[in-house]
Amino acid sequence: xxxxxxxxxxxxxxxxxxxxxxxxxxxxxxxxxxxxxxxxxxxxxxxxxxxxxxxxxxxxxxxxxxxxxxxxxxxxxxxxxxxxxxxxxxxxxxxxxxxxxxxxxxxxxxxxxxxxxxxxxxxxxxxxxxxxxxxxxxxxxxxxxxxxxxxxxxxxxxxxxxxxxxxxxxxxxxxxxxxxxxxxxxxxxxxxxxxxxxxxxxxxxxxxxxxxxxxxxxxxxxxxxxxxxxxxxxxxxxxxxxxxxxxxxxxxxxxxxxxxxxxxxxxxxxxxxxxxxxxxxxxxxxxxxxxxxxxxxxxxxxxxxxxxxxxxxxxxxxxxxxxxxxxxxxxxxxxxxxxxxxxxxxxxxxxxxxxxxxx
Length: 359
Ligand SMILES: Nc1ncnc2c1ncn2[C@@H]1O[C@H](COP(=O)(O)OP(=O)(O)OP(=O)(O)O)[C@@H](O)[C@H]1O
Ligand SMILES: [Mg+2]
What we know:
Blueprint: E1 3-15, E2 20-32, E3 36-40, H1 47-55, E4 62-67, E5 70-71, E6 82-85, H2 97-107, H3 112-125, H4 141-154, E7 159-163, H5 171-188, E8 191-196, H6 199-205, E9 208-213, E10 216-221, H7 223-228, H8 233-238, E11 243-252, E12 256-260, E13 266-270, E14 280-285, E15 290-294, E16 300-309, E17 313-319, E18 325-331, H9 333-336, E19 344-349, E20 355-357
Parallel strand pairs: 3-8, 3-9, 6-7, 7-8
Antiparallel strand pairs: 1-2, 1-4, 4-5, 9-10, 11-12, 11-14, 12-13, 14-20, 15-19, 16-17, 16-19, 17-18
Helix pairs in contact: 2-3, 2-4, 3-4
Bound molecules: adenosine-5'-triphosphate (ATP) and magnesium ion.
């Protein structure tokens, strides 16, 4: 697939008389045609700034932006083929739904009949038929969000930019709306750059996720890849939950490593590059990648120090004889028996799910 968005060495420093903030720090990123890439990271990591740079609302301090192969780094927003869906919707309060959606087409001087046809079509896409004459204040939050989406879609931009578009909706509507956005994005094959700090949302909606921290790209890849093979501790911790165990690599073959846990237990785990026999490493152990068994079975003994039940899932904190704590999740605890604090158990690690980090 051809590359539709290319960010090259993109850097933005905000300077004032008080201080200077490096909001985006030498970012390289490519989005292919029809792909949805999400910028994910904690508050203040530079997601919105990156999106605003792509949309033309900020000018970079350094670096270049290409859209469809054309350099647009210094072009104003209206001369880039992008449309943005903002968190706050940004609808015109004094205009009807129809007028809000038509606005971008009128600016582009399209014929009246063409405007009417395209607005109707777009409203149909997001299930807003019949609401053309309402004003934004007469709509629910979810409906306002769909008008904002519709307004962006109707101009058929090359690239759609989303900045936390769902954060003002309640939990259930967030899930419904993100499914709708994803379906439309795929159907219309619109290249999209999507910003969120919600990792579940990012996992659900993205072809690839770009994890950022302090303005820097940490890792980019499909959701599954980022979860299973995080590039570093930050990514492992930010995407899902993770236990970190200090281990030593005692044997290294092409496909398999042997590692030693604190206390001397040895496990065969998938090999990673950059480590060899004798190295210290960090084992990333996901909470669902440990079986809880009766005491005496499995790899190690542990004691339940905290137990939390949420229906489909039981979460346990367990302490190992060597002092480490592990967080473990057990599905369907009704069937397996809910464990209480103080219970001694055996733990078995899923070897194939353990991912090693260098530090
Ligand atoms: N106009 C500005 N002037 C000065 N500093 C700014 C400006 N805009 C953003 N910053 C700073 O740049 C950094 C990145 O901000 P940005 O809004 O891109 O973060 P974000 O990842 O979108 O965070 P959030 O998840 O909270 O929306 C922050 O430290 C912020 O304070
Ligand atoms: Mg932001």
